[in-house]
Amino acid sequence: MAQEVINNQKERHEFSFNHVFDRETRQEDIFNKVAHPVMNAALDGYNGTIFAYGQTGSGKTFTLTGGPEKYEDRGIMPRCLSLLYSQFKKRTDYTYQVHVSYLEIYNDSGYDLLDPALETQAKSLEDLPKVSLMEDDEGNIHLRNLSAHPAATEEDALNLLFLGETNRATSETPMNLASSRSHCIFTIFITATQVGSDVTRKSKVHLVDLAGSERVYKTRAQGDLLNESKYINLSLHFLEMCIVALQERKGNKKHFIPYRNSMMTSVLRDSLGGNCKTSMIATINPNKDHTDESMSTCRFAQRVACISNAVKVNEEVDPQRIIKRLKKEVADLREELALLRGGDEAEAELTEETFKHLRSKVDDFLSDPSPESELNVGPHMGKLKYCIGYLKTVARQG
């Protein structure tokens, strides 16, 4: 008689997500659902973070950076840049400046993937400057030796992204022949100023590709790869500790969050429970051999979904713009006062050379497309009358 075996292990697990993508989902659909809202918010002055989490080979890096074979396979990162610069052209009432940085965290040490002193592709991490953490008196984290590069055009930004990708450390593992053995954070800094305003909006967007989350024994790694896997698992463990602590906080702002345990959690401090709109992509392998890892990824994603961030627009008054505007106002008032009083040159006789110069100034004023352009002829009533008359003549002829 066969012995009955009772299986007390739960066979069905249910998880709730904002959206589930299948294998047939296009890169464009993922971008529109996950990244588009974050980037639109960044244009309005909100910080944003998009990060991918999952085991090696589940599609994190492909989702973020895309594939080289087809244009349609572009990932979230290049699509984010394309969206930004297309929106800049439409939002003509603002001026924008963009800088980018690319940080690699390998074995809990930071490296600058966009080192300006590097003339050729990095052959090893030793070729890249090491990045260190610094904390100011207010508790804000700063990254020493991490360069931020201006990107005036989409082409500039994409070239910097591709440069960072070529310098990124990859190693072969039994699970993936081009496995990412590090965490990488590509950051876009956006400065927006409305035309004629002294207020500046500054936002940043972190695009984060985390290393594989599988357990060490699953990688079958040895030597240096084994050491890498241990560091990866430890940093992801610290990330999970922060997320669990944020769950337990539930409004208690004094509850301790162990951000300082690793470089990655320190850098992503705002992204987790801070001033940031954060989206997470959880990638899983549907193969039954990876069920445990897929379950672990889903549980992690559920914890992240329970975190509440307090977002706000990052606005600040630019003191240099205020000083410039006030100086101009003072100069205008002095000219107006001199005009009312009648300056020394008010009665000076105007020459043909002066008339020619005034006509040139009026022509330049009329051809300048800037809404802030001005026609300044100084505190001289005769010059003002001549310019007004010349303007009327041009208007009649036009």
From TrEMBL:
Record key words, sorted: ATP-binding, Microtubule, Motor protein, Nucleotide-binding
SMART domains recorded: KISc
Domain Kinesin motor as annotated: residue spans: 1-307
PROSITE patterns named in the record: KINESIN_MOTOR_1, KINESIN_MOTOR_2
Gene Ontology cellular component list: microtubule
Record-level GO BP terms: microtubule-based movement
Highest rank taxon of the organism: Eukaryota
InterPro entries reported in the protein's UniProt record: Kinesin-like_fam (IPR027640), Kinesin_motor_CS (IPR019821), Kinesin_motor_dom (IPR001752), Kinesin_motor_dom_sf (IPR036961), P-loop_NTPase (IPR027417)
Residues binding ATP, per UniProt: G54, Q55, T56, G57, S58, G59, K60, T61
GO molecular function, one term: ATP binding
Matches recorded under PANTHER family: CENTROMERE PROTEIN E (PTHR47968), KINESIN MOTOR DOMAIN-CONTAINING PROTEIN (PTHR47968:SF67)
Family label: Belongs to the TRAFAC class myosin-kinesin ATPase superfamily. Kinesin family.
Protein's UniProt name: Kinesin-like protein
Organism: Hemiselmis tepida
